[in-house]
Amino acid sequence: MGKRKSHRKKERIKYSSIHQVPGQVTYVGSKTSEVPSVEIINYNKERVDKVHSQNVEDAFNFNKEETITWINVNGLNHTKEIEKLGKHYNLHPLILEDIVNTQQRPKIDDYDDYMFIVLKMLYYDEHNEFVNEHLSIAVGKNYILTFQEADGDVFDGVRERIQNARGRIRNSGSDYLMYALIDAVIDSYFTIIETMAEKIEVIEDSLFLENPEEGITQDIQDLKREILKIRRSVFPLREVISRLEKSDHELIDQKTNSYLRDLYDHIVQISENIEIYREMTWGLMDMYMTTISNKMNEVMKVLTIMASIFIPLTFMAGIYGMNFEHIPELHLKYGYLYFWIVLIIVFLGMIWYFKRKKWL
Amino acid sequence: MGKRKSHRKKERIKYSSIHQVPGQVTYVGSKTSEVPSVEIINYNKERVDKVHSQNVEDAFNFNKEETITWINVNGLNHTKEIEKLGKHYNLHPLILEDIVNTQQRPKIDDYDDYMFIVLKMLYYDEHNEFVNEHLSIAVGKNYILTFQEADGDVFDGVRERIQNARGRIRNSGSDYLMYALIDAVIDSYFTIIETMAEKIEVIEDSLFLENPEEGITQDIQDLKREILKIRRSVFPLREVISRLEKSDHELIDQKTNSYLRDLYDHIVQISENIEIYREMTWGLMDMYMTTISNKMNEVMKVLTIMASIFIPLTFMAGIYGMNFEHIPELHLKYGYLYFWIVLIIVFLGMIWYFKRKKWL
Amino acid sequence: MGKRKSHRKKERIKYSSIHQVPGQVTYVGSKTSEVPSVEIINYNKERVDKVHSQNVEDAFNFNKEETITWINVNGLNHTKEIEKLGKHYNLHPLILEDIVNTQQRPKIDDYDDYMFIVLKMLYYDEHNEFVNEHLSIAVGKNYILTFQEADGDVFDGVRERIQNARGRIRNSGSDYLMYALIDAVIDSYFTIIETMAEKIEVIEDSLFLENPEEGITQDIQDLKREILKIRRSVFPLREVISRLEKSDHELIDQKTNSYLRDLYDHIVQISENIEIYREMTWGLMDMYMTTISNKMNEVMKVLTIMASIFIPLTFMAGIYGMNFEHIPELHLKYGYLYFWIVLIIVFLGMIWYFKRKKWL
Amino acid sequence: MGKRKSHRKKERIKYSSIHQVPGQVTYVGSKTSEVPSVEIINYNKERVDKVHSQNVEDAFNFNKEETITWINVNGLNHTKEIEKLGKHYNLHPLILEDIVNTQQRPKIDDYDDYMFIVLKMLYYDEHNEFVNEHLSIAVGKNYILTFQEADGDVFDGVRERIQNARGRIRNSGSDYLMYALIDAVIDSYFTIIETMAEKIEVIEDSLFLENPEEGITQDIQDLKREILKIRRSVFPLREVISRLEKSDHELIDQKTNSYLRDLYDHIVQISENIEIYREMTWGLMDMYMTTISNKMNEVMKVLTIMASIFIPLTFMAGIYGMNFEHIPELHLKYGYLYFWIVLIIVFLGMIWYFKRKKWL
Amino acid sequence: MGKRKSHRKKERIKYSSIHQVPGQVTYVGSKTSEVPSVEIINYNKERVDKVHSQNVEDAFNFNKEETITWINVNGLNHTKEIEKLGKHYNLHPLILEDIVNTQQRPKIDDYDDYMFIVLKMLYYDEHNEFVNEHLSIAVGKNYILTFQEADGDVFDGVRERIQNARGRIRNSGSDYLMYALIDAVIDSYFTIIETMAEKIEVIEDSLFLENPEEGITQDIQDLKREILKIRRSVFPLREVISRLEKSDHELIDQKTNSYLRDLYDHIVQISENIEIYREMTWGLMDMYMTTISNKMNEVMKVLTIMASIFIPLTFMAGIYGMNFEHIPELHLKYGYLYFWIVLIIVFLGMIWYFKRKKWL
């Protein structure tokens, strides 16, 4: 249990260190990287350019009307670089704060010439720990900026489609790229849901073992906590996407709308599944309680059977251990035999009684 | 329990394999058929034509103004055929995706010249397993397309009415046929509700047996899961039908509206019943808990009665088993008799005490 | 328990037999009568006519402008007669279906020249079984049609007021008669609420008996079910009456509005009471659980006291029952006396201990 | 418990006797007085007149434009007098019905030239029984009528302020008097909340006593019932006051509005407190359950310790009570001493074991 | 437990003493100071003046157009001084009442030329007691008045920023200062949330100790109470800030709006965290219950094992302690040895049985 506890401790964020001065860009997350990793993909119908750099300035060359530029920054602890990018693309100071504030909940902010979306990548890392990674997306006329906490994301499918010009992506604007990115994130939630279902199943199964380990209460409580956290990351997204769909921002093309509606369907479906697993998890504690009680019942039965059978027999033996001068039975020739016969009859009677009660 | 578990495993869908690329038509369900089964019913006031085929192209001949064509496709794994049909009837790529995505929740999408509805057929199959079959309906001016996972459906009544010109169906437009199809689906939900009621009753009754099998906790948990799934399939339908009723799509005739309102009444009634059974099911765990506790009480009583009666008696026997040199009682002529008299009095006293306490 | 179960079985309706073909009038209730009973009351300010018949055609003579005609039909299995009446008064086919579908929930439908209201009469019959009787009211300019499942209703007060011209009823239109009828139904709900309160009280009291019968869990579960059903019959009525009050249908006179508002107050009051009793009932299971646990505690205490007192004493007796050659105490002159003194001291010590612990 | 039960019985109202004929003024409450008590306070900026009478007609003299007349009637069983007053002030018949129907929930009705408000005075009487007294207020241009069930109310502060011209009351219209009266009622709710908090505390504390009396389950259930009733009396008031505040009735002066908003703040605050106490009360049953279980644990520990220590010792004594011819230990010189040494070692071992397990 | 109880008693406020006469300024809080402490900060872009005084009149000199004056009053028991200030700044009498009514819930009132906001500072004092301090803010064109119960607040960061002209604060109007103050309060809530998380963790961990102290039930109940109180202080703030953000009061500059939206994000985030911790806390009682039951299971197992092993053995010893004349086994040469062999076999059999059952 030591491990479990220490994990929980580590995970807790010092909320109180967040946002000391409004507009000040301070990173509060736990993941850091030594150098920022900037990945620039610049494309239009005809061509794709791909650049990896540690320097955000490299991105500024691509900012032209006729192409779409996707700049992906990994490593939110490099606040300087992010501020440079923010200045170049004219982002509001509070947005820069939101980009590095990993505690920010999913939201969407409309500005005149760009939109800003915050969402969460949820996954289980190699140690099977639940990870909640902060992701910010700023969408402009012909650029998209994405900011992640660390390397490794769910966008490989999107990159591949850009590279190979699969689907509509190369022929569409930055709004479709935005859609494709959010879609990739939401699709990755389905894995979370599968893991949740598996966890519930594991606990349910272990509840029927002879001796479920005691830590199971803590496991259930931890699962509750996890589900509540996932809910908090997923549910606000419903409103974000609903607002995106209903938005009349000039960035959103009419054709993209049906894709956004599809996205909304997906996020509602995920939310419903979370609610179902939530109800199931809340029921696990009751299941455990009945399991414990059933076990206690069984223990009690063993005790009761043993005691009920032998206590009367011991009493009988006690009778004939008495030292009264005149106990006629003691002097019978077959007294001891008779005693055993009676004893066995009593014994069988008890056995029969417990059999009838279905305790044996 | 092995069986139960393996069933649950099988049923779980790999959500993560859904919707890899937007607009790509990939079937994710578990049911497959070797050849697609296409059933075409073409009718108007005067005549009915009925064709069975494995080829969707056969349907395109019927697409004329003066008749209504109902094309029913069984087997969603034949995505090629579905795409052909989609192309002919000019359906949006995302709709084709929804047709084969069996995880899609019930919904309605309005397009300019057609409507698209997703719902679920719920039934128990021959093995008494709960089945949730995906059904999509596309309604146009003079055609209806329906897509099902497998052969066998709830539309036989509708087919018969078309064949025999019973009711208003032959004199009405495609909107009335759509109504008749949805109505058939919703009517079939009543069977589900009956089964639910039966299952609850079976569990309730088994809770009062002497020894309910332990697996009952799992049964209750499974029933909860089932109800939650049914809810998820049924509840969104309320909004679908409400939107259908309030829709001012030119496809929906004024006269069909009161039928749709009737449909809405039915779906609300089903939802209310589900909620009632849900509350009853959630109460079952408490019932089971009291049942266990009552049983333990009974076990404890047996133990307490046995122990309370015989422990004092054994003590008395022990007293006169002692080897003190001077125990006057031992030398009384009727000592042993007196002992038995006292013993029987004590015994009867205990019996009386427990009788008074109503434990016997 | 056999009786209880069979009752529950009987009560369950085959939902699946409802509404096979839209617009087809099929009775699904359980009550039937051999002949329909039609009661016609025709009145205006000056006079009242009252006719009992088995023939609905008798009612058609009264349909004149200057009087109000109330036609009450008992026996929904006589669908033929109901269809005749429907045809005469020009009712929509779906309304006829609703009249005989006893599963239809409370609702109101507005038509151009009449209104149609469905509600439920709730009462306990002579066998103290909860009865949910279907009642439909069609209100036109100068007529009211009411349809009931069986003889016997809550309208005797209304009949008497018409007969004796008490209150405003003879001077008002069909809307006031409609109000008076609904008012009579809702007033009868108060009896249901009283019975509910009584039932909760009976269970609460029996929970404090020495030995509540085990069936009490089932009683609580049944009461839950009953309350849920009552809720389902009563709650939709709030919306029905609210819509009636806000309706601008020409049938509803301005003056009737404040009466309808009063009705709304009543139905809200009933709903609130149901919710309170619901919460109380849901708490009963917890109460029962604590009762069981308290009883077990008491059983355990008896066992513990008996065992704790006699086990050490028996041990002491055992000591001096040993056959060691040299046990000095055995040879003391007053050894046996001393033994008893020690024994009584130990005994009193245990008693004192348990008294201090308040177990005795 | 007899007392408690009889109290509950008494309190239950025969709902079914309410409102037999619409508009008929029948008192259903339990409090009655022999003569009506009418108190008239007539005031304006310059003077105050105060009259006590048993005759409502005495009030009619004061009905003048230039003063505000407050007529307070105690004793709702004098329906005749109330009808006289109603006729004089031209009140709607349904209002008269509401005045004497003590089951009417809080509400507000707007009429052209007056407003009618129903609310509840809640207090604990001298026997510490919860009392829910019905209060109706009718407010006209220059008069206010208040109707109470019995003598004794919360308006003494208001009377004193009128008498001594303290605050704005003498300079303001009937709307401010209405505000002052409702304010006095709502202020009195704070006492109810204090009592609730105290009751919860008393139960919580008694749960930690060695032996909470068993009736505590009933106490908790009764407290739940009380809180639910208080909620029912208080919560509708939120809407009443909100509507009063937003009302544009000509009776309500602009200046009174901020006072009404203040009132709304108070009622929301009270509602929130009720909800908190409700949650606390609902948690009490769980607390009690753990208390019982803890006690049972303790009982079990005593039993287990006693049995575990003495059963092996008794067994040992039994061994040397056997009559085998050749038991070598029996013939050892210090056999009895050795026996005691082993016995004490076993005894101390058990004690050490239980100490280590923290059971001792 | 004595301490805990007395603390709770102290904390409870006599609600009933609040607001006896409308508009009368009576302090009801528990904190008092001998002299009022007035702190005046007067600043504009160029300069800052800072004055500490015991006299509110000192503030009136600063009230000029070209600077912003922040007057902070500590000590709400000095109602006289507050009334002076209120008169000077022309505040409504009901506002003065709200300033000193520490029971007032968070709210916002718009007046023509100023806004009035009530909120709560939440913190744990040096004795680790939860403190809920009342804070009122009145915002005018070029002044801000803040009223606190006692010295010590969360505004030191704001003071420092004004002093050192850090951030936008010196260049902005009174609306930005208002934002900065509310922001400081809300930021301090994060500490509360951290403490809550810690408390839950402490309880969870102590539930897994061998012997959780019994007071833990009370701790959980107290934590529930605390969370409910925090909720009550925090949740209304959501609406306050939402209304502030949407307000079109001329005081609120366009540029401040995005800061207010940021504030709203924070308060929603805090609310969500509170809800999560609330759910976790509500689950603690169930966890405790299973912990108790598990412990009881363990106790029962020890008893059952001891009893089941030694009761049969004692019976065997009893058999050969009998005094029958003819018990052949007693006279066997190795009878006693054989007896021990059988006894050890039985003993090992029982041990094996319990090992197989995993009880050992």
* Beginning-to-end CA distance, first to last residue of chain A: 37 Å
Helix content of chain A: 40-55%
Low-pLDDT segments, ≥5 res of chain A: 1-13
Q: What is the CATH first-level class name of the largest domain in chain A? A: Alpha Beta
Order of helices and strands of chain A: HEEEHHEEEEHHHHH
Most extensive interface, residues per chain?
A-B, 66 and 67 residues
Strand content of chain A: 5-15%
Number of domains of chain A: 2
Give the quaternary arrangement of the chains.
homopentamer
Q: Kindly report the CATH topology of the largest domain in chain A.
A: Beta Polymerase, domain 2
Name the shape of chain A in a single word.
Answer: rod-shaped
- Tell me, rounded to a whole number, the average pLDDT of chain A: 86
Report on the biggest sheet of chain A. Answer: 7 strands, mixed
CATH superfamily of the largest domain in chain A: CorA soluble domain-like
How many helices of chain A? The count is: 8
Overall structural class of chain A, as computed from helix and strand content, comes to: alpha+beta
Widest β-sheet, arrangement of strands of chain A: 2-1-3-7-6-5-4
Number of strands of chain A: 7
Radius of gyration of chain A: 34 Å
The CATH architecture of the largest domain in chain A is 2-Layer Sandwich
Protein name (chains A, B, C, D, E): Magnesium transport protein CorA
Family (chains A, B, C, D, E): Belongs to the CorA metal ion transporter (MIT) (TC 1.A.35) family.
InterPro entries (chains A, B, C, D, E): CorA_cytoplasmic_dom (IPR045861), CorA_TM1_TM2 (IPR045863), Mg/Co-transport_prot_CorA (IPR004488), MgTranspt_CorA/ZnTranspt_ZntB (IPR002523)
Pfam family, one (chains A, B, C, D, E): CorA
